[in-house]
Design a protein that fits this description.
Number of helices of chain C: 11
Shape of chain C: globular
Order of helices and strands of chain C: EEEHEEHEHHHHEHEHEEHHH
Bound molecules: adenosine-5'-diphosphate, magnesium ion
Strand order of the largest sheet of chain A: 1-2
Strand order of the largest sheet of chain C: 6-7-8-3-9-10
Structural class of chain A: mainly alpha
Strand content of chain A: under 5%
Order of helices and strands of chain A: HHEEHHHHHHHHHHHHHHHHEE
Distance between the termini of chain A: 51 Å
Number of strands of chain A: 4
Shape of chain A: globular
Helix content of chain A: over 70%
Number of domains of chain A: 2
Helix content of chain C: 40-55%
Radius of gyration of chain A: 26 Å
Chains: A mainly alpha (about 425), B mainly alpha (about 300), C alpha/beta (about 260)
Oligomer: heterotrimer
Strand content of chain C: 15-25%
């Protein structure tokens, strides 16, 4: 038996409790000024909130105990090569039709019938969540597949939104005309941003894209003649339905189905891309930029395609966003928006389509439906980024590479080799 | 001429605050190669702690100098504690991970801390008392440089000299330099690398907090979001000077401060932040090694 | 027939350090040339300059592909263009795409010989489908040839060490090179794996007609494989000749081989 086994249970427990007490004391000390004291410098008033200190103390004590218990169990258990119960269950779910078919059917039905059973308000929220699904999938191309940490993704979203708003304001362009233009302009901006950052290392690239995003926002905020500054642009028309003007409720439902369509289209495209020649080049670029170049891949083109394609989705969703809210202004396009989309990609699993879809729905809907959460939304996003990096960097659903099936094929006489062909998918 | 001098000294003052924050970025980057995105939030936390302590002490009726010193000290201690904790929770487990993981974790930490303060305190701007007293002998020069600015300049100059001395001549300074050069080798010759990294975070955080208290009392208001823009600007300063280099951070801070000061004074104040971001993008793209840094090549 | 690759007075400086010092070298089509020398002699740097990963300070690199006619100047080209021209390499410290499957690693090598773009990928045009099929078939054939047939769908990171080294060669072969640059391919291999590698390299030459430039420390492998050996020290070429000549060259013996050779000889 190991040391841990020889030791009496009581002693380890005592030590764990002592440790947790220390942790709890430390956090009580740490949060003392900010969480307990609230000052009002004008009225010279001081509010003491001792309850918070108590909550932090108890909370961190319990968390620390649980954490120690979990790590203890993990080190004690001999690492086995067989997958855990959860993994087996997940595999079963994905393989056996009698489990996943009804589940899928339910999901499809709920999605399709959603607007008929829920209020306009609920449909609206769902549409927003779907927008984040597409944004997540788009950013996933850049961050998840190509490994380029883009912190200014929201800039392309802004480009899309402002394209529609301005084109409509000045030239009366409609939604359907603006959609491809917005997407194209965003792609163009993606390439414009891509050029200067081509040579940059990962972390510098992140900061430059962040700077780029902020510059776009600041320009929108300050260049009144062009973008109407902080007051934004109002009265952007909702999409028309074959020339018909829809009621508010009708337009909401229409947008909802539009988004469903866009989500499906995005999934279709991204799925095909990631198992294509281009997609493989992105992943190779992410894995090892230098080796990737040495294997004959044009780094410039590959990076620019990733930026441009990623930006295209943001541009499209931007147009839809403008049409949905009918009003846009610069504060909708801050860095925090980029960070939220990044959190979706990170939580879902870089490069994993299913993961990103689920993560977007969870991260956007959870705070909407659990009102208590709403205020803690950004706190949650921040925590998600940290926790995922530490405990599950591959995300909720790690992306699996495509497996090719091979059949032995007799080759022309003279060569005694077998070589495979891919089974059709 | 006076206007020029005023802008110049104003730029130096700004720049010295950027330098104080930039030191934290540069020291951490020098040692573990991480852009500590949450550093701006430590600065913000420092300013808030300073405000709380100052308000408490004012109620107790202490004299102004004592309040200034105590508020700064407590803020520095707390910022160091936060820096230590953040490193331990969010970065230490990721030391072996790929380069982007700790950066993403740092972004998460930054958002978390911002919202922690927003929820625990307020999302409004809070007025910050002018802790730095008006000096009588400065009266004739008031149109060029205020007492607060003078004090800020003097304090930061002193702190930087102190820091240089610590890094040059003390045991921990030597250990820091060794760790920055080669972590594995430092470990082999008996340097406790984890301790060195923790101390680096604590020193950097304390300096940021000092900057936070000083500039907040000069500007007169704070809120939970001030760390973002200040952090970005200080990072710009660090890169400008050459990230990893301590004199570089100071130089970068002054250059950025003066650039901003002149640009807003002579051109337009609307685009103040655009100048900083533009500068940041330009340097990273065209001279990522900065003024004093050397380009590092990847080993094949 | 003139040489395939000609290197003329190649220099590479890193700050004050001269890693390559007026290096001249040529490789004929179908030849196996070994590059030996103590650690830090500049061998890897030489490969980096050839493949466009480093920009040489001075000197010329020219490639003449038989049947393709004109003389190509390689210095100044980015790495991917060099690979297109027909130079492919492996790395001393293995640099596979760890989270891709073994087959996909080789498929990456096919990238520069194929051209399906975004539209082909999304709409699966007939041309793109056929090309994709060919990429898979060709890559699988290479893997079979290198004895990696049982690993197709495994992640590269999970491969045993020797297999990873062979996968690097497979990936390089997929780019259809005329000259293959191998940087210490036998490093860390056991004697049996090394013997297999010996066989493999000879097979690559005889079956595919690819010339090979090889950096290696395993003297037995070098002596048995090479047509010609080039010895480097401090960035300079100090000797060149057949294995027998090198074996008896006093300069080499003192500078590098020393007792090592005394034992094998
Ligand atoms: N990117 C680089 N920057 C600076 N010096 C380098 C670089 N690459 C190699 N060197 C130096 O060049 C010399 C030759 O190295 P290398 O080519 O790796 O030797 P070998 O492969 O023969 O062992 C060494 O002194 C090494 O430190
Ligand atoms: Mg080498």
């Amino acid at each position: 038996m190991t040391d841990a086994g020889k030791e009496s249970g009581g002693m380890t427990t005592a030590r764990a409790v002592r440790r947790s007490l220390l942790v709890s004391l430390w956090f009580m000390f740490l949060t003392l000024p900010i969480l307990v004291i609230r000052v009002n410098p004008v009225a010279q008033e001081i509010v003491w909130r001792w309850r918070n200190l108590f909550l932090i103390g108890v909370g961190s004590f319990v968390l620390s105990l649980v954490g120690q218990f979990l790590t203890h169990r993990q080190t004690r258990r001999t690492p086995s090569l067989t997958p855990g119960r959860l993994a087996i269950f997940r595999q079963r779910c994905m393989r056996e039709p009698q489990i996943y078919v009804p589940f899928l059917l339910c999901a499809v039905l709920t999605t399709l019938l959603f607007p008929w059973f829920f209020s306009t308000y609920q449909t609206n929220i769902m549409t927003t969540a779907l927008m984040y699904v597409v944004l997540g999938l788009g950013l996933n191309i850049v961050v998840g597949l190509a490994g380029l940490l883009d912190l200014g993704y929201v800039a392309f979203y802004a480009v899309g939104a402002y394209s529609y708003a301005l084109l409509n304001h000045h030239f009366g362009l409609g939604f359907w005309a603006a959609l491809p233009i917005g997407a194209g302009l965003a792609a163009l901006f993606g390439i414009l941003l891509g050029f200067p950052v081509l040579r940059l290392r990962g972390d510098y690239l992140a900061i430059v894209t962040l700077g780029f995003g902020e510059i776009i926002r600041l320009i929108l905020e300050n260049w009144n003649e062009f973008s109407f500054g902080p007051s934004g642009i109002a009265n952007i028309p909702r999409p028309g339905f074959f020339g018909l003007d829809l009621s508010l409720a009708g337009a909401t439902v229409y947008l909802y189905y539009l988004m469903i369509g866009l989500v499906l289209f995005t999934i279709f495209v991204v799925n095909r891309l990631q198992n294509s020649r281009i997609g493989r080049a992105w992943i190779a670029l992410r894995e090892d930029e230098l080796a990737c170049q040495a294997m004959g891949i044009d780094k410039t083109r590959t990076k620019l395609t990733a930026f441009a394609l990623g930006a295209t989705w943001a541009g499209m969703v931007g147009v839809i966003f403008a049409a949905k809210t009918t009003f846009i202004n610069p504060p909708s396009f801050t860095f925090l928006e980029s960070a939220m989309i990044l959190a979706i990609v990170v939580l879902g699993g870089m490069g994993s389509i299913a993961g990103v879809v689920i993560a977007a729905l969870v991260l956007i809907l959870l705070p909407e439906y659990l009102r208590a959460f709403a205020e803690y939304r950004m706190l949650l996003f921040g925590a998600v980024l940290v926790i995922m990096m530490i405990f599950r960097p591959q995300g909720l659903i790690s992306s699996a590479r495509r497996a090719y099936k091979f059949m032995p094929v007799p080759v022309a006489a003279g060569r005694n080799k077998r070589h495979g062909t891919a089974a059709d998918h | 001429m006076d206007y020029f001098l005023e802008l110049f000294l104003g730029g130096l003052t700004r720049g010295s605050i950027y330098a104080l924050i930039a030191l934290g970025y540069t020291m951490v980057y020098g040692i573990i190669g991480l852009i500590n995105f949450a550093h701006g939030e430590i600065y913000m936390l420092g300013a808030f702690t300073g405000l709380i302590v100052a308000s408490l002490l004012t109620v107790f009726g202490l004299n102004q100098y004592a309040i200034l010193v105590l508020a700064s000290l407590v803020a520095m201690v707390y910022a160091a504690a936060y820096g230590y904790t953040v490193e331990k929770i969010a970065y230490r487990p990721l030391r072996q991970a790929s380069r982007l993981s700790p950066l993403i974790s740092a972004i998460g930490m930054s958002i978390f801390l911002q919202n922690y303060v927003r929820l625990a305190q307020t999302s409004d701007f809070l007025p910050f008392p002018a802790l730095i007293p008006d000096l009588a002998f400065m009266e004739p020069y008031a149109h060029i440089i205020g007492s607060a600015e003078l004090v800020i300049l003097l304090v930061t100059a002193m702190v930087m000299l102190l820091l240089t001395a610590v890094i040059r001549f003390t045991r921990i300074g030597r250990a820091m330099r060794a760790t920055a050069q080669d972590k594995g080798m430092a470990m082999l010759v008996g340097v406790d690398v984890n301790r060195v990294i923790s101390i680096t975070f604590m020193i950097g955080s304390a300096l940021a907090a000092l900057g936070g208290v000083l500039i907040a009392s000069h500007i007169g208001q704070i809120n939970f979001a001030i760390g973002f823009i200040a952090g970005i600007k200080a990072f710009t300063a660090a890169v400008l000077g050459g990230i990893g280099s301590i004199p570089g951070a100071v130089l970068g801070g002054f250059v950025l401060g003066c650039t901003e000061s002149f640009a807003t004074g002579y051109v337009s104040s609307d685009y103040e932040d655009v100048f900083a971001f533009g500068l940041l993008v330009l340097i990273l793209v065209f001279r990522p090694a900065g003024i004093l840094g050397r380009a590092a090549a990847e080993k094949v | 027939m003139g040489p395939l690759l000609t290197i003329d007075r190649l220099c590479m400086d890193f700050g004050g350090l001269r890693a390559l010092d007026h290096l001249n070298l040529s490789v004929a089509a179908g030849e196996i040339v070994a590059l030996i020398g103590p650690n830090g002699a500049g061998k890897t740097t030489f490969f980096n300059c050839l493949t466009g990963l480093c920009a040489p300070t001075a000197g010329e690199i020219h490639l003449v592909v038989p049947g393709r006619g004109q003389r190509l100047r390689l210095n100044g080209l980015p790495p991917n263009r060099v690979t297109e021209k027909g130079l492919a390499r492996t790395f001393q410290n293995i640099r596979l795409f760890a989270d891709m499957t073994v087959l996909e690693n080789v498929m990456i090598g096919r990238h520069c010989r194929t051209k399906a773009g975004v539209f082909g990928a999304v709409f699966r045009s007939a041309a793109a489908r056929i090309e994709e099929q060919q990429i898979v078939t060709a890559s699988a054939a290479i893997l079979e040839r290198l004895g990696l047939g049982s690993y197709f769908n495994d992640l590269a990171r999970n491969l045993p060490y020797g297999a990873q080294r062979r996968l690097e060669i497979a990936r390089a072969l997929a780019t259809e090179p005329v000259l293959l640059l191998l940087d210490e391919p036998a490093a860390g291999m056991n004697p049996q794996e090394t013997a297999e590698l010996d066989e493999l390299i000879l097979k690559i030459r005889s079956e595919l007609g690819i010339a090979i430039l090889l950096i290696e420390h395993d003297m037995r492998l070098v002596m048995s494989l090479s047509d010609r050996i080039v010895v480097m020290d401090h960035g300079e070429k100090i000797a060149e000749g057949t294995p027998a000549e090198i074996r008896s060259n006093p300069l080499v013996i003192t500078a590098y081989l020393g007792e090592d050779l005394a034992q094998t000889a």
